[in-house]
Amino acid sequence: MGSESRNVKIEVRSPQTIRKGELLGQVQTLGDPGDYKPNFTILPDGRVFLTMFRQKFFGERPMETIMIYEADSKLRHWRGPMYPPPPGREPYLSPTPQGTLLITTHLLDSDVHNPYGVARSYVHRWAPGGVTWSTTSTDHLAPPGEDVPDKLVGTSRNILSLDQNLLVMFLSTAGLRNFIWRSTDDGRSWAESPCNVEGVPSDYPYRLFEEAHLWISPNGRIFALCRVDARYFPLPGMPVVETEGNDQFDRLIVYVSHDGGENWSVYKNAFGAYGMMYPSILALDKNRLLLTYTNRKLDPPLGVRAVLGWQTDDGFEFVFDHDVIILDANTPESLSSGGGFGPTIRLNDGALATCYSYRDAKDVTHAEILQWRLPVDVINQAKLDTALTARQH
Question: What pLDDT is stored for residue 128 in this prediction?
């Protein structure tokens, strides 16, 4: 884990606030070939936990295994895999104020650990000092024996801490059914209630909150950056590309709730471009934001990118047409999917770190961490605000 490192120059497309050639970074390799979609989080004490998954086959059936690693606050020393959680795919970490780790994940319908033959979603929990994980299932929302065409329950990627004692996450099933889960006991148990979402086509066949990234503003509004099918959610003024059977053309739409998640409405219909997914928002300070996302299919190089933004009175703004930071450009142009994932975290010394996976020319996945810094003048309030204000006019 983290056995090799190298220095790199980070490309910035259409530099304006960032000067050409001034971003440098250090790449650290992770795990073994075949490891996929890492993500990580930092606890209040500076420890970093990272998780990703690996797929093996038993005959024609896959078995996907979650690995979790722990590092010091500068990512110099890693240990793991450790604390082996139950199996799953695309695990995503969320810390609680008490230092507990929660993982949202799902099992493929064909996974050897899945006895039902339909995909299932779960929340795994590990408390500090623990040696085992506990699991909360979503099966009751679409029981395995229920006669419905799509039994998968999709969960938001991350889980929000609204205060020291209240956690929330959001779930969707087929048929436009959406739910809020609340926990007041550090994720041990969850209370469930339906929530209302406006602006979803009545024939939308997928789950709105599945893969959603949640963010809360200082005034308590909750935002959900949702991955949606472009055929049902075309970008305003842009032709809808042919996407039948290819989810690499999916895009992002932003919803907002003003009442703690009970009711949702569209906040930004036009947000980025086709092929953007797996977003996450990092606060650089009390005003400035960084959006990390995965770019797929339409605009090589494929992989993880970041753009600058800022908080507004009602939410946030990001600029997508300049200062586009290409954090990962490893996937060959001949491949249509790079992996990606992210997110970006800020270490205790102020450095930024972004994790991702990519595919090589032989279609084998590899995982890395890029440590980098934004120049001091880029995170200078006056200069950044001047550039962003100019973009608005």
Answer: 77
pLDDT of residue 284: 93
Span 216-248, pLDDT tens digits: 999 999 999 999 998 899 998 887 766 666 777
Across 179-198, average pLDDT: 97
Cα–Cα distance between 203 and 306 in angstroms, integer?
33
Query: Is residue 293 very low, low, confident or very high in pLDDT (cuts 50, 70, 90)?
Result: very high
| pTM of structure | 0.93
CB atoms within 10 A of CB 226: 30
What CA–CA distance (Å, rounded) separates 141 from 306?
Answer: 35
